[in-house]
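Annotated sample (chain length 68).
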Amino acid sequence: MVETVKVVELVGESKQGWEDAVQNAVHEASKTIDDIAGVEIYNFTGDVEDGKIVEYKANVKVAFNVSR
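Output written by the structure step:
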């Protein structure tokens, strides 16, 4: 049987840090996507106010198995 993997791109956000932003993206994806097999983090950004990072953002690709 040939396995097929589908990939979706998401942006996770957090006020705690980039690792938390990644976890939030995966957690939110898991609410609607079954069988998540992996995640690729490809960009980190943040919002800055008064010289401090106030929000962390992580662009991620979530891979999941497609079953027929």
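Annotation: Strands lie at 4-14, 36-49, 52-66.
Annotation: The chain is about 20% helix and 60% strand.
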